[in-house]
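Continuing the series of single-chain predictions for the mutant panel. This is the parent chain; the variants come on the following pages.
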Amino acid sequence: MRSQRLLTPSDIYAIKLVSDARFSPGGDDVAYVQTILDRDKNDYQSSIALVPVSGGESRRFTAAGAKDTTPRWAPSGDRLAFLSNRSGSKQIWTIPHDGGEATQLTDLPEEVTGFVWSPDGSTIAFVSKAESPQPEQDPPAGEEPDASDVVHIKKIRFRADGTPGFLDHKPTHIWCISSNGGSPWQVTSGEYSDSQPAFSPDGRELAFVSNRTGDRDFNCASEIWAVSIQGGQPRCIAGGDDAYFWHPAWSPDGASIAFSGHRQAATQHATNYGVWLAPASGDRAPRNLTAALDRPAGDFAIGDTAVETDGGPVWSPDGAMIYFPVSDAGNVHLYRVAVAGGDAERVVGGNRRVLGFSLSGNGSVAFVVSDPLNPGDVAVCAPDGSDERRLTAANAELLDAVALSAPEEFRILSRDGDQREIHGWIVKPVDFQEGRRYPMVLEIHGGPHAFYANAYF
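Parent structure:
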């Protein structure tokens, strides 16, 4: 007789979603995000937590009753910057490492959607919308802008998944601000949308993602560019109508920029991502370091109890290796590849999903990992994947109380001529009895853009 109860719909309010594990510069702590569903507010609430790498209890670091996300340490380790909507709009805040009151750093008319520290900690680059040079939607003649529900569409792309209503067509640009506060300055401009800034090691330049092709309204290109932090004319690192590149990351010596993606832009996620390397000068074609790996270099798992974060390439501190996620038959693993060449090797494996990761100054890895019986916890390991240790037990109380059924993996051959292998799982009821007939729900998700995974669902 089992002592645990069955799950109920209200248990969703007890699940804690763990994401975005970030090593402190000294390697002593890991900051991460913990998200819950607030039943009273009918909304998500997120806070930043810290857990010591040596072991021990995690502690809640921010508690504003808001959405605090994206923890990023100052290079000195004395402060932590994060995004929060506690002032009504998602902006950058900072808080001392030893605790205390958080301070709002940015106060822009539009929300901040991402940011990064400069290597010396003096500057923060961030992404926010800017006014479009020309209005994209005109009110009918003789009417005030807010008096009509008629919208004049002037762009071929006027809606986007996850964005309510019509797109406002204000481009996102790269901005910079002193980490001590003050007025921000706009680094990029024009009718292009720019994102994912990454500082060069000397702090003088920013790599970023943009589509600056002449036919950008009609293609899916995503290019890598670089520009001075003071602005000016950017240079193309890897581009063209066929480019589909993301997540630029400078090498520690500043000579190269790594990024993920492929050169079949029209297919987007339906083509395997690779890890690419290009000279920071932009004067030579990039090369795919993982061309021999017949798996996508990225996290393409689908889940309903996960907060996903960027999964781009990360350099080892010595510049010899690049770490990256790989999606493989229901799992998301952590791999690395030598910059000098050779086959990619798996660092973190198993029947589970690695959700984001970061490296410490000595190359140790912090990551969030989920499996079918656990929504997720923070773990750490050595640079080669050895000595893995779980640091948190975020959902221990719930998991101790409820009975869960472990999915059983299976593979069958399709009935068409080429006999393709089809991969799936069967989840039997708790207290399943052999020989008894049960009703079955069949839930299908084909490829090629994403897949069901070995994660809590």
